[in-house]
Amino acid sequence: MPTRKKAANKTDTKLFVLDTNVLLHDPTSLFRFEEHDICLPMFVLEELDDKKKGMTEVARNARQASRFLDEIVSDAPHNMAEGIELTSDSRKNCTGRLFLQTESISRELPATMAHGKADNAILAVVMHLHHQQPERAVILVSKDINMRIKARALGLEAQDYFNDKVLEDTDLLYSGVLQLPGDFWERHGKDMKSWQKEGHTFYQVSGPLCGAMFVNQFVYLENDASPFYAVVCEQSGDSALLRTLTDYTHSKNNVWGITARNREQNFVLNLLMNPEIDFVTLLGQAGTGKTLLTLAAGLLQTLETKLYSEIIITRVTVPVGEDIGFLPGTEEEKMTPWMGALEDNMDVLNKTNEEGGDWGREATRDLIRSRVKVKSLNFMRGRTFLNKYLIIDEAQNLTPKQMKTLVTRAGPGTKVVCMGNIAQIDTPYLTEGSSGLTYVVDRFKGWEHGGHVTLMRGERSRLADHAAEVL
């Protein structure tokens, strides 16, 4: 009876057949299927072998996947047909087995599907297992959309690899901003304490809405008489401490000649100009002012207040269209074509001061150039930045692992600003839910030295705003 019961329960576990791109995307996927079993066709092992050469992220992941497989197989019994236990002291949640293809598959595919092609050979394995174990769910896991479509056309079950997704629905992503209801003060101001300190007014409030607030989240209440803008300084249970903001929409508080044009830009400048905030993430479509505000705040704190020694800008070099091949010159010269946004914003920031004329503008441009360094992502590993203002542009094209590598470069006194638009991802296999930018926004929310704002309104031009809406 115990044996029969065990066999009956075994059908409850699924068998996942992994495509090569899943291992290349996340080598730890071998241990992400909990109690379920996984199978690797022989073609997957061959493709891993082909991809392991080089210094790219794909090659590193291929080598790491191979090391994991070597670690698993080295302790395997002689009869691999029964599967290899994946559980270990460090991976107690992973209780399934790993099956490697140990026999030739004779399952025939439709005549129209080319023989010898890796994708079709993997599909043949899935079909063979499906017919061999009809009582069990056999599922192909692949990041390749066309591969999943072909599998479903053959009557096989297929799905994407979901384990790397931070959120299923990016509409639920933390925005960093909370609109207060019209009756906020009536419901939360009963035992309120208020005081002033260093030009800001503090409000100690308590009520049901305080439990949903995060530290460094911006709150606002707009009415015709006196709009209220504040940031959450402390949050505990159903009480919160709110502090009013510096008004960067006023010209007296301009940052390198730039003033905030809307509510969210004001919130952004309050984050960027706060020396207690070490990590800032900015989301928003093209033209919302992410790069301009970040550069303006960086220049003021580097050249005037001397809070940082220099500005370092980096971004992922993913082309939108056809690649233009190798570029000559030094690291900075190679990065120049990717930094058109930097040049455009420098032109805007350099025109804010008209007093010195053309000669003064050129002198200012040279001074700025000496303090702004453009670096490639490829050479970041192992570095430590001290008292730097690090800007990571187009961060939506980074994987969570690359994002971790970059953010952990920050040494004492360094501020890191990540910005991007998750609707414009150019990296294969990355989605809005699995982007490194989405990852850090979700993981850093509520940290006392980090802040996030999603910018909503474009300020580039009426043409750009209209194009963003209708195209």
TrEMBL record:
<dbReference type="InterPro" id="IPR027417">
    <property type="entry name" value="P-loop_NTPase"/>
</dbReference>
<keyword id="KW-0547">Nucleotide-binding</keyword>
<protein>
    <submittedName>
        <fullName>Phosphate starvation protein PhoH</fullName>
    </submittedName>
</protein>
<dbReference type="InterPro" id="IPR029060">
    <property type="entry name" value="PIN-like_dom_sf"/>
</dbReference>
<keyword id="KW-0067">ATP-binding</keyword>
<dbReference type="Pfam" id="PF02562">
    <property type="entry name" value="PhoH"/>
</dbReference>
<comment type="similarity">
    <text>In the N-terminal section; belongs to the PINc/VapC protein family.</text>
</comment>
<comment type="similarity">
    <text>Belongs to the PhoH family.</text>
</comment>
<dbReference type="InterPro" id="IPR051451">
    <property type="entry name" value="PhoH2-like"/>
</dbReference>
<dbReference type="InterPro" id="IPR003714">
    <property type="entry name" value="PhoH"/>
</dbReference>
<dbReference type="GO" id="GO:0005829">
    <property type="term" value="C:cytosol"/>
</dbReference>
<dbReference type="InterPro" id="IPR002716">
    <property type="entry name" value="PIN_dom"/>
</dbReference>
<feature type="domain" description="PIN">
    <location>
        <begin position="14"/>
        <end position="149"/>
    </location>
</feature>
<dbReference type="Pfam" id="PF13638">
    <property type="entry name" value="PIN_4"/>
</dbReference>
<dbReference type="GO" id="GO:0005524">
    <property type="term" value="F:ATP binding"/>
</dbReference>
